[in-house]
Write a structure and sequence with these properties.
Helix content: 25-40%
Strand content: 25-35%
Low-confidence stretches: none
Radius of gyration: 16 Å
Mean pLDDT: 87
CATH class: Alpha Beta
CATH superfamily: Hotdog Thioesterase
Order of helices and strands: HEHHEEEEEHHH
Distance between the termini: 31 Å
Structural class: alpha+beta
CATH topology: Thiol Ester Dehydrase, Chain A
Number of strands: 6
């Protein structure tokens, strides 16, 4: 991650608001695309999307009050995969938001959705597949969800996948 100043600013703000968001909710962060975020085509480079999503996931875990609980339990996140679809560019100096939420889980993996929205339109949608490890073992997701206080019913995973099958329509609409 090469967004160190934005990361430090997020840590300060997130710790001040620790526990302010619901586990079943959506975390929203606002950024601006600066010239050093651009690629040769003069829009935000794809690698920056991933960096901003890293910040968004950590922000989400701190704001729901889960980060300290996970760290005390010796649990560390491990990113398994990202499936990203890009729809619109983010232009120089344009403000954008990173929205992060938990969408489902299975026995091993936690699935999070991250959207990057600019000008009221979705610029990208990402499905993140993450697990947590503790002392060299994969933590069962039900144990993880209990620790962070997720009490809502588990969403149907097939519904999550069906939603991602229709992403192209959302990105061009």
């Amino acid at each position: 991650m090469n967004l160190i100043f934005r990361f430090i600013w997020m840590l300060i703000r997130a710790h001040l608001a620790q526990g302010s968001e619901a586990v079943a909710g959506t975390s929203v962060m606002t950024f601006r695309c600066w010239p050093h975020d651009l690629d040769i085509n003069l829009h935000m480079t794809n690698s920056r999307y991933n960096s901003f999503m890293d910040i968004g996931r950590i922000n989400f875990m701190i704001r729901i009050g889960g980060w300290d609980k996970l760290r005390r339990a010796g649990m560390l996140p491990v990113l398994g995969s990202l499936a990203t679809r890009y729809g619109r560019p983010i232009n120089p100096f344009q403000a954008f938001q990173v929205l992060t939420r938990i969408v489902s889980w299975d026995d091993r993996w936690l699935y999070m959705e991250q959207r990057i929205v600019a000008g009221g339109q979705t610029a990208s949608i990402t499905l993140c597949k993450t697990l947590f490890v503790q002392k060299g073992r994969s933590v069962p997701t039900d144990e993880l969800m209990q620790l962070i206080g997720f009490t809502s019913p588990k969403p149907e995973f097939t519904a999550v996948l069906a939603q991602y099958d229709g992403l192209d329509k959302q990105l061009v609409a």
